[in-house]
Amino acid sequence: MRSQFNVSLYQFVFSLSQALDLINPTMANHHKRVAYIAMRVAEAAGLTGRTKEDVIVAAALHDIGGLSVTCVDSGSAYSPKLRSARIGYQLLQKFHPFQFAAQIVRFHDIDWANGANRTVEGQEVPLGSHIVHLANRVNTLLESGQPTLPQAKRVCAQLAEMRGSVVVPELLDAFLVVARSDAFWLDLNAAELLSLLAERAPFSSVELNREGLLDFAELLAQLIDFRSRFTATHSSGVAACAAALAQLFGFPDSDCKQLQVAGYLHDLGKLAVPTELLERNGKLSEDEWHTIRGHPYFTHRILSPIKGLEDIARWCGSHHERPSGTGYPFCLHHVDLPLEARILAVADIFTALTENRPYRDGLQKEQVMLILDRMVENNEMDRKVVAVLREHYEDVDHSRFAAQTTALQEYKDFMQRLTVLDLSGARAAHLAWKDRLRDYLDGRGAPMREQLVCHRECDLGRWFYSDGLHHYDHIPEMHELEPLHAALHQFIRALVENREQGKLWEAEACFSEVDPLSRQIVDLLERIERKASEGVADSLPGIIPLTVRPSCSPAR
C-alpha cells in the first residue's frame, strides 16, 4: 500500500452522494442535481475556489444525516428535519476536508424567514446553507422522471412566491439569471451530470496518508453502522479482525492497514437496505432476502470509481462470495478470490458470531469454531484462514473486543454531542421565538396568526412534540414540559387575538404572563440537557444496553 494517496475529493464526494441516493431510489440523482444547482447559484453569487467547493460538497451530501425517507419536510427553524442536519454535521465534521461543508449542512434546511433566520440556535447561518436550501427547493419542485425544461416557468413562478419568506431574495435573483438558459435545465436531465460538474468545478486533490484514509473509512463506517442501533460497532469489529488476520499471515503493515480500511467499508452497500430489514429479528421473505443480498454489489459499485481504492472495492464486493462459487453477488470461485477477500469474509462471519446482539450474547469459542469448521467442510470459508484464526483465536478476539469497545464509546459520544445540540438548539429556538413575539407585539414583526392553533401544532409545538425532543421522553423532567408549554400557549393565543383586535394593553398584559413561563421552560430545558448528558448515552433511545465482552479471555 502506498504511503500517500493523491485522492480526488470529487470522487470521494460523489461516491458518497451515490450511496445516499441508494437509500431512497425514488430520489435517484437528487443529490447530484442539488449539487449542480447549488454550484450554478454559487457561481452567479460570485463564490469561487474552496468556498464554492464547500457549497458543492455540502449540496452533494446534504441529506447524509437523514439516512431515512420519513423526514418531515419543513424549513422552520423549529423543524424536526433540523435534527437530521445536525446528525449530518456530526458525521462530516470529523473528516478534516469536510469541516466547512459540515457547517453548511448543519443549517441547510432553514428558511430565510425575511431575515429572521440569519442566526439559528445562536449560530450565524452560512451563506452556503442558504444556497443549498434554495437548490434543494428547486429540485424538489421539479417533477421526478419528467423533462425539466418544460417545467422551468412553473418552478420559477413558485420560487418567486417564496422570495423573502423561504429563500434569500439576492440568491433567488442569482438563480433566476442562471435559469434563463435552456441549457441549465437540460443539464439537469443529462446522463453525464457528474462530468458537467467536474468540468465547471475542478476539485482540488487532497493528500491522504494511511491515517487520513482510515479517518475517511471510519466516517463511512459510521454512516453505515449508525443507521441501526443493532450494528453500531460491527464494521469496527470486522476492520480489527481483518487487520489482525492479515498481520498473522505476515502481510506488511501497509497491507494490514488496507485490509482494515476494507473492514470499515465492507457493508457500505447496506445503505440500499431499509433499516427495518437490518433490525428484523425474524424470518425474511424471499424479496427481503434478495434486497439484503444486493448489498455487496452496491458496496463494489460505490467504491470502484474511487481511484486508489480499486483493490479495496474488489475485496469488499466479494466478502459474501464463497470458495465453492455459491456466494453472491458475483458467484466467484476460490481461484477468483484473492487472499484478502477470503480474510475479509472470515472476519465478517467471526465478528457477527462473537459480538453481542440485542437478542443474544456473543457466542463462545467452541460454538464459533463449530460453525466455522462446518463452513470449511462445505467449502464456504477458506480453510487456511480459519486455521490461522483457530491457532490465534484469543489474539484476534481481543482485537475485535478492543475495537468494538472503542467504537461503542464513540457512538455514545456521538449521541451525547447530538443531545447537547438538540437541547441547546431547543433553548435557542425558544428564545428566538420569544424575541419574535416581542417584535410582533411592538408592531415590528410579521403577523403570528399561525399561533392560533393548538399548542402541539404551533411553531414551537412542532419542535417539542415531533422529532425535536421526543427522543428524550425517558427523562422524567420531559413530562413537566407540556403543561408549561400548554399554559404558555394560552397566553400567546390571547396575546395574538388581542393584538389583532387592536387591544394593545391587554396584549401587553398577556406578554407579562408569557415571560415567567418562558423562563421556566428554558430552565427546564437546561435541566433536561444536564440529565441527558450525565446519564451517558446508554440511557438514550437507540443505544443497545450492551457490554461488549470477549468470547474468551483476552490474550496477555
UniProtKB/TrEMBL annotation:
Coiled coil: none
SUPFAM superfamilies: HD-domain/PDEase-like
PROSITE patterns: HD_GYP (PS51832)
A GO molecular-function annotation: phosphoric diester hydrolase activity
HD-GYP domain: residues covered: 209-404
PANTHER family: 3'3'-CGAMP-SPECIFIC PHOSPHODIESTERASE 1, CYCLIC DI-GMP PHOSPHODIESTERASE PA4108-RELATED
Name by which UniProt lists this protein: HD-GYP domain-containing protein
Species annotation: Sulfurimicrobium lacus
